[in-house]
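Dear H.,

Thanks for agreeing to be a second pair of eyes. The structure we're designing against is below in C-alpha cell form, covering all 311 positions.
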C-alpha cells in the first residue's frame, strides 16, 4: 500500500497534550490501523480524511463539525479523528449531537429539488441529476451508465444495480431525453468522469448558490445521494404503494423501503390532509373522482388534497 509520507497535522499547542509531541507520520498511523484489523482500502480512506484536516485532534473535530460534509461523512470523519487521537495516546470523547446520531434521512421537498434542477446550467450535470430524480439511481449507478443502457426512441433507461440494488428499466421524461441527446458520445460511458464522487463535487457550487439566493440553509444538506432518497420518497408520495415503491427503489429488503413512509409524513402537516400531485389532466380527473380537492396548479402538476389517510 502506497502511503503518503507527509506529516499529518501541526505541532500541538496550548496544552492540547500533556507533553510536547512530535506529529507522527501517516505510515505509523497506517500500521497501527492495520494491527487493529483494518483493511487496506479502509486505511487508505481514513488517511485521506486525516490529510484534509490539521492541528490537534480537538481542532480537527471542530473542522469536521464546521464543514459542509454530509452527516454521514462527518460521522465517519469523527471516528477517524478519535482513532488518530487514540493512536497519539491522547484519546478524546467523540461529540454526540443529535444531527449525527439521528438515523432519519434528510430529504428535500419537491420545491427544493425543482429549484436545484433548473439552477444547474451544465447539461451533463443536469442530465445526471434528472436521472437520479426520475429513477432513484445512486451516484455510482449514474456514473456507471453507458450509452447502450439508454433507448431514446422508447424513452427508457436501464439502471444496473450496485451495492445490493436490483437492475431495472425506467421510463424517462422528454426533458431528460433532450438533455441526453445534447451530450457528445465520445466514449461508451455517458458521464466520462474519473471518479463517481466528482458528480457530487460538481453539485456543490449550485447548492451553495441556492442557499445564498433563497436564504434556505437546507440546500447545503443536499448531496448527490440525497436525490435517490428524494426519488424514492416522491414515488411513495404519489402512489401510497409500498410494494411498488420497493420495486422502484430496487430494494431487496422491504424494511429499507419502509423508512421512506416517515419521510413522506413530514411533507404533510400532521392530522390534516393527504396531498397528491396529478401530472396531467387525466390524473386530475381521476383524483377528483376519488374525492380530492384541487388546491393549486404547481410546477409539478396539479396539487390536490383530502383528509389524510396515511397510517
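And this is the sequence the design step returned. I haven't edited it by hand at all.
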Amino acid at each position: 500500500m502506497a502511503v503518503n509520507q507527509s506529516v499529518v497535522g501541526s505541532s500541538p499547542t496550548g496544552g492540547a497534550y500533556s507533553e510536547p509531541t512530535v506529529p507522527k507520520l501517516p505510515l505509523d498511523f497506517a500500521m497501527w490501523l492495520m494491527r487493529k484489523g483494518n483493511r487496506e482500502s479502509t486505511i487508505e480512506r481514513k488517511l485521506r480524511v486525516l490529510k484534509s484536516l490539521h492541528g490537534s485532534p480537538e481542532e480537527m473535530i471542530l473542522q469536521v463539525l464546521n464543514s459542509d460534509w454530509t452527516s454521514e461523512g462527518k460521522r465517519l470523519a469523527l471516528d477517524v479523528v478519535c482513532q488518530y487521537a487514540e493512536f497519539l495516546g491522547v484519546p478524546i470523547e467523540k461529540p454526540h449531537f443529535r444531527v449525527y446520531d439521528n438515523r432519519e434521512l434528510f430529504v428535500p421537498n419537491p420545491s427544493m429539488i425543482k429549484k436545484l434542477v433548473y439552477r444547474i446550467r451544465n447539461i451533463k450535470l443536469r442530465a445526471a441529476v434528472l436521472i437520479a430524480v426520475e429513477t432513484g439511481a445512486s451516484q455510482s449507478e449514474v456514473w456507471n451508465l453507458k450509452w447502450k443502457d439508454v433507448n431514446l426512441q422508447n424513452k427508457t433507461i436501464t439502471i444496473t444495480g450496485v451495492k445490493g440494488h436490483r437492475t431495472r428499466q425506467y421510463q424517462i421524461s422528454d426533458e431528460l431525453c433532450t438533455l441526453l441527446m445534447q451530450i457528445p458520445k465520445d466514449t461508451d460511458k455517458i458521464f466520462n468522469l474519473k471518479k463517481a464522487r466528482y458528480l457530487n463535487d460538481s453539485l456543490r457550487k449550485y447548492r451553495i448558490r441556492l442557499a445564498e439566493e433563497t436564504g434556505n440553509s437546507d440546500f447545503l444538506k443536499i448531496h448527490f445521494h440525497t436525490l435517490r432518497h428524494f426519488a424514492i420518497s416522491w414515488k411513495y408520495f404519489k402512489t401510497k404503494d409500498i410494494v411498488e415503491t420497493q420495486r422502484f427503489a430496487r430494494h431487496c429488503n422491504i424494511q429499507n423501503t419502509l423508512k421512506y413512509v416517515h419521510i413522506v409524513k413530514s411533507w404533510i402537516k400532521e392530522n390534516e390532509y393527504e396531498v397528491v400531485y396529478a401530472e396531467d389532466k387525466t390524473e386530475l380527473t381521476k383524483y377528483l373522482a376519488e374525492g380530492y380537492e384541487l388546491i393549486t396548479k404547481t410546477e409539478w402538476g396539479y396539487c390536490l388534497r383530502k383528509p389524510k389517510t396515511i397510517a
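Two observations from my side: The first helix runs from residue 26 to 35. The longest strand covers residues 301-307.

Warmly,
E.
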